[in-house]
């Protein structure tokens, strides 16, 4: 049998994650007809509910190019393209990583309270309160 030399069929799937590199990518800024938003709730079939920086809550469609490759979760900062004919709907164009969102905040593109640091919350920070009332002891 001849040896498979090309990158078709099963050979294309091998090592598909090897191309991922940790170098910084270029920061994408908004243009006319686009807005920054924070994902509030993930819905089904490639839809999410996001709060835009202009104060409008919009139903956003995750474009097919991103659906299986870029995972979007609640709280992520995304760039949405506004629709001319529907003000309450938009399309997710780009997802920002945490460091990119901080860079946008430093540039003044995002308001101050929207980007939160990735810190694990515990009782030592004082944000968790434990009530000892009703505790019978062991």
TrEMBL record:
Belongs to the eIF-1A family. SMART domains: eIF1a (SM00652). One of its GO terms (molecular function) is translation initiation factor activity. This is S1-like domain-containing protein. It comes from the Eukaryota. Coiled coil: none annotated. InterPro entries: NA-bd_OB-fold (IPR012340), RNA-binding_domain_S1_IF1 (IPR006196), TIF_eIF-1A (IPR001253). Residues 16-26 have a biased composition (Basic and acidic residues).
